[in-house]
Known about the structure:
The chain is mainly α and about 230 residues long. The protein has helices at about 5-30, 40-45, 50-55, 60-80, 90-105, 105-115, 125-140, 150-165, 175-185. It is built from 9 helices and no strands. The longest helix has 26 residues, at about 5-30.
Amino acid sequence: MSPRSASVNEELRRRSRERLLHAAVELVGERGYEATTLGDIADRAGSARGLVSYYFPGKRQLVQSAVHRLMHRTLEEALEREPRTEDGRERMARAIDAILGLARDRPVLMRQHMAGILQAEGFMQCPEQRRLAELLRETMARHGSSDVDSDYPMMRALLMGAVYAALVPGAPMPVPVLRAELFKRYRLGWELGLPPETGASGGRGEQDLSRFFATGAAPECDPGGQSK
């Protein structure tokens, strides 16, 4: 049999990494961080355990990347849902609702994520985090910021603070209250985005997250080693 082409090998590696990200989100959301091992994640992903360390330095980096992927794709889905709009105020409202929605709908996962950022390793940049940052920066720019380099870090801090406040054990703040404060800050009408009283999920809170992770079947190869 002819060896696989470089493009097929690259696609196989990409899908393997995606399966690990998907498995990490599922397991940490179900069991919490401490109760989830790298072996558990590899088993859920159907991957050899040695592959985890090939793609990620450790469990903390894997979980942060996985949650950043979920945040990035949740935000992207909210911004692009129909009716699609270029209006900066509506897009800012959708962004706030998307992030707060994750705190509301996936409290275990997001609480573990916030706790991880406060650990010694701290905040770790990764491709998923950079894509999330790009979307938030673009949202800030479309909202009318004249200084995105200054306004984006403040927006990020406010969103992280709101998520933290929503998840404090024993004393959580209600998401609608946090939403109201953020909407006031950015001068957004309550009817924008996805108001809590609509009862709609807008794609949030669903158990099946596979749409956020490209984990489909591996590409096939013809006898010449080319993908079909």
